[in-house]
Design brief:
The chain is an alpha+beta fold. It has helices spanning about 40-50, 85-95, 100-105, 140-155, 210-215, 295, 305-310, 360-375, 380-390, 395-405, 420-435, 440-450, 460-470; strands spanning about 30-40, 55-60, 110-115, 120, 125, 135, 160, 165-170, 175-185, 195, 200, 225, 230-240, 250-255, 260-270, 275-280, 315, 320, 325-330, 340-345, 350. Among the domains are: about 30-75 and about 145-225 and about 325-400, FAD/NAD(P)-binding domain; about 230-320, Alpha-Beta Plaits (2-Layer Sandwich), CATH 3.30.70.2450. A hairpin with a 4-residue loop joins β8 (about 165-170) and β9. It starts with about 30 loop residues before the first strand and ends in a 19-residue tail after the last helix. The chain binds flavin-adenine dinucleotide.
Length: about 500
């Protein structure tokens, strides 16, 4: 399985070499005895699913005590906010856990067709509600995580150690040999225990302490790219006045941008309710209390969401979330880093949540890991496998950073457009302008955003023609209450 970091033995050529005199452990054709995964959330569970095919035992170490049902928990504070599963992520999830999409649907997770079932407003224009080309699964995050957890933990090789937090790594700059843990809430050093492992995967989320842990064993933390638009979320659960949801259930998406700094999503979840997330760029944050929540929606580009909220009944307090920066940790770049240590999920690359990408990228990462480990042509060195994991997040990063780096108030070392990016930004602006009214451009745009196609889909001949030479087609002047009749 994963062996050294891919450099010549006995050297430190910049990427770490794992040259510690020990044979590569684990290595191709040789199962790992024990893999430890830090964190017990979506990325950890899906990574465990993949690695259990290559290891005798996989231990997930999770700080929280895990709830018995689909409940939010402290370690995943974002779970109270809208969590869409993009179509690319849904397909990857199904490949990892066959049958899970049917189970999700049976559990009550709604499926929203785009653009047919969604009133979508972007850059001052409403999308036409033509036939859907893509779908979003919009059930709550705790319900999805609970289902994934039940499915993954049905594998007897995978166990979870709950209520236990990782506080450091075992090993040295050339090879990680396990983790140091303590029971949650323990304060003294004597309570720290060791957990030896052949491979350690950090899936502890966007707040990962891996930079400190690596420094603690004399290794180099990864270079971090950051892009922070200051986007803030406020979310509340509602029951709409329209009654139980059917095909015509309302779903709204107002995408914030440089000129329209407030956004909103209203999406159906289980039990005929709707989760409403209001968002605002730096300086325009939505209120984190009940007072003013509905009023904030009056400042959107159109009053339709505000009007819907006035008639709906709130069923939860308001929950706020502020730390929404996109952060990418470049473990793939040269540095003195150990073999036997990988980062996955948000610990590797986290995104501005407005694009709804993180869970999908976690699933795509688990597939990339599977493929990297199965590749008969290449030894799956730590560095190669890490690069495969990062590659699985590249398109999502390109989409999120491409849109965010130009926003007013964006901060971080990944802001600003380089001159080489200018033609792409110019082309993308024309795509965004045409997508609401032109079904061909709209379908291609959605395919890229949904991570079902590479961004090359935006340059397919009919799309290219429409983007370069076609007019900006008319769009509805008011929120379209109903889908357009099927063409033909
Ligand atoms: C506000 C918001 C909205 C979002 N909306 C969407 C969306 O619509 N669609 C989407 O796909 N994604 C969305 N995301 C991203 C999504 O939540 C994550 O990408 C997804 O949860 C996968 O993350 P993860 O498993 O890597 O980490 P997380 O889900 O953050 O989990 C990390 C886990 O590690 C545990 N942990 C942390 N430190 C330690 C430690 N030292 N020892 C042991 N355990 C530890 C935590 O308790 C937690 O269980 C959103 C994110 C935010 C912030």
């Amino acid at each position: 399985m994963v062996d050294s970091a891919g450099a010549r033995p006995g050297t430190h050529d910049g990427a770490g070499d794992g040259a510690d005199g020990h044979p590569p452990v684990p290595s191709p054709g040789r199962r790992a005895r024990h893999v430890v995964i830090i964190g017990g959330s979506i990325a950890a569970l899906l990574t465990a699913r993949t690695l259990s095919d290559h290891a005798d035992r996989v231990t997930i170490i999770e700080r929280d005590r895990l709830p018995a049902g689909p409940e939010p928990r402290a370690g995943v504070p974002q779970s109270r906010h809208t969590h869409v599963l993009l179509e690319g992520g849904a397909r990857a999830l199904e490949e990892l856990l066959p049958g899970i999409l049917a189970e999700l649907r049976a559990q009550g997770s709604p499926r929203v067709g785009m653009p047919r079932d969604l009133v979508h407003w972007q850059s001052g224009r409403f999308y036409r509600r033509t036939a859907s080309t893509h779908h979003l699964l919009t059930g709550t995050r705790p319900a999805l995580e609970w289902l994934v957890r039940r499915r993954v933990l049905a594998d007897s090789r995978i166990t979870v150690v709950e209520g236990t937090e990782v506080v450091g790594l075992l090993g040295d700059a050339s090879r990680v040999r396990g983790v140091r843990v303590r029971e949650r809430g323990a304060r003294t050093r004597t309570e720290v225990r060791s957990f030896p492992a052949d491979l350690v995967v950090d899936a502890s989320g966007r707040g990962s302490r891996a930079p400190d842990w690596l420094a603690g064993i004399g290794a180099e933390p990864a270079h971090e790219e950051t892009l922070d638009t200051g986007l803030a979320y406020a979310t509340r659960l509602f029951r709409g006045a329209d009654g139980p949801d059917g095909a015509e259930c309302p779903a709204y998406n107002f995408t914030p941008d440089g000129r329209h700094v407030r956004g909103a999503v209203v999406l159906p979840v289980e039990d005929g309710r709707h989760l409403v997330t209001l968002s605002g760029l730096r300086g325009n944050e939505p209120p984190s209390e009940e007072d003013g929540f509905t009023g904030f929606a009056a400042g959107l580009g159109h009053p339709v969401v505000h009007d819907w909220l006035l008639k709906a009944r709130p069923e939860s307090p308001v929950h706020a979330f502020r730390a929404t920066a996109s952060v990418r940790r470049r473990y793939d770049l040269p540095g003195r880093r150990p073999a036997g240590f990988l980062a996955a999920g948000d610990a590797l690359c986290s995104f501005n949540p407005v694009y709804g990408q993180g869970m999908s990228v976690a699933a795509l990462g688990a597939l990339a890991l599977r493929d990297a480990l199965a590749d008969p042509r290449r030894t799956p060195t730590t560095r190669r496998v890490q690069r495969a994991l990062l590659d699985a997040s590249r398109q999502a990063w390109k989409i999120a950073s491409g849109a965010d780096r130009e926003l007013p108030g964006a901060r971080g070392n990944a802001t600003g457009t380089r001159w080489v990016d200018r033609p792409g930004a110019w082309y993308l602006a024309r795509v965004v302008e045409r997508a609401p009214g032109d079904p061909v451009v709209g379908a291609a745009f959605r395919a890229a955003l949904a991570l079902t196609s590479s961004t090359a889909v935006l340059f397919a001949p009919p799309v290219l023609r429409a983007v370069l030479f076609g007019p900006v087609r008319p769009t509805p002047s008011a929120p379209p209450a109903n889908p357009e009749p099927a063409a033909g």
